[in-house]
Specification:
343 residues, alpha/beta, 6-stranded parallel beta sheet, 3-stranded mixed beta sheet, 10 helices, binds zinc ion, Met_Synthase_cat, EC 2.1.1.13, transferase
Length: 343
């Protein structure tokens, strides 16, 4: 376990083919009932073993027990009707049929706490758990009840805080909120998005992270990226306020991305999970390519605050490609670690 440049992933990892259709988002489960419950935990074990075998330091569940990073959490809440669907535009980018908020939202029981306890007893490595962020949650729903994005986000923030406190008690070291919506709705992020995120982490003693990315390598995202020009400066809109926020770690996309690396300067003082693995290509990075990205990041983040990671989740990739990328991340971090330590 490395304490200097500890490696981690942004979140999801591929599932075994006996559990869900590989290389597919929203892939339906192949098992049911007790078999499904047992299968999910077996997959979690495998995912953990893969991460440890690849030399990943801060490990996760690989999101093996959830179908989707936002929807699975919302499915556990009351106040949302999954039968009553409406077409909305997600992240201002693509139309999707989404569930409706039909009443007050509430968390009736813990969502991932049992899974986190299970992971905790399997490893002594630090563990990171991902939850959807409030703004990204509201952006994947039709709200027929609160009729206010801000109000609904605030309600979700309170619910996320309940879950986060229980995850912390279950032994989670880092709780990460996925907020790809932070790369789109800049005015809302600055008006209330960061405040909602801070409500979600209120009272936590464990470390907290926010993951802001350009999404999985799906067509809607790659098409959108083509419209963003030669320099992607989206982070510039939200970093100044995030730098002043209560969040400890910012997870962002750097590998093969057109994000100017010097934008990291805007969050000076925060720990930075630097995406050194591109999740939108099957080409496996070399250790030297990863090292190169990390070296560039080191111009703007102190070594003790640099956390080598992936650009985003890897669930749409094949297991073979994902394993190769994890190994490359680990090997690339090792090169830079040696350089820093002067070996
Ligand atoms: Zn992401």
């Amino acid at each position: 376990m490395n304490t200097l440049l500890p490696t981690s992933t942004a979140g999801s990892l591929p599932k075994p083919s006996w559990l869900a259709q590989p290389e597919t988002l929203w892939s339906p489960w192949k098992l049911q009932g007790d078999e499904l419950a047992e299968g999910k935990l077996d997959a979690l074990r495998i995912s953990l073993a893969d991460q440890l075998h690849s030399g990943i330091d801060i490990v996760s569940d690989g999101e093996q027990t959830r179908q989707h990073f936002v929807t699975t959490f919302i499915e556990h809440l009351s106040g949302v009707d999954f039968e009553k669907r409406q077409i909305v535009k997600i992240r201002d980018r693509y139309d999707a049929s989404v569930p409706s908020v039909v009443g007050e939202v509430a968390r009736l029981k813990p969502v991932f706490v049992e899974d986190a306890r299970f992971l905790r007893q399997l490893t002594s490595h630090p563990i990171k758990w991902a939850l959807p962020g409030p703004m990204t949650m509201i952006d994947t729903l039709y709200d027929g009840h609160y009729k206010s994005r801000e109000k609904l986000a605030w309600e979700f923030a309170k619910i996320l805080n309940q879950e986060a406190r229980e995850l912390e008690a279950a032994g989670v070291d880092i709780i990460q909120f996925d907020e790809p919506a932070f790369n789109v709705f800049f005015d809302e992020v600055n008006d209330w998005g960061i405040a909602a995120l801070e409500r979600a982490v209120e009272g936590l003693k464990c470390e907290t992270a926010v993951h802001i990315c350009y999404g999985y390598g799906i067509k809607a995202n790659t098409d959108w990226k083509k419209t963003l020009g030669t320099e992607w400066r989206q982070y510039e809109e939200v970093f100044p306020k995030l730098q002043k926020s209560a969040i400890d770690i910012i997870s962002l996309e750097c590998q093969n991305s057109r994000v100017p690396m010097d934008l990291i300067e805007l969050i000076r003082g925060k720990k930075v999970m630097v995406g050194a693995i591109d999740v939108a290509t099957n080409a496996v990075e070399t250790a030297e390519q990863v090292a190169d990205t990390l070296r560039k990041a080191l111009q703007f983040v102190d070594a003790d605050k640099l956390y080598p990671s992936t650009n985003c989740g890897m669930v749409p990739l094949s297991r073979q490609v994902a394993s190769g990328k994890l190994a490359a991340l680990s090997a690339g971090a090792d090169i830079v670690r040696r350089e820093i330590l002067g070996k």
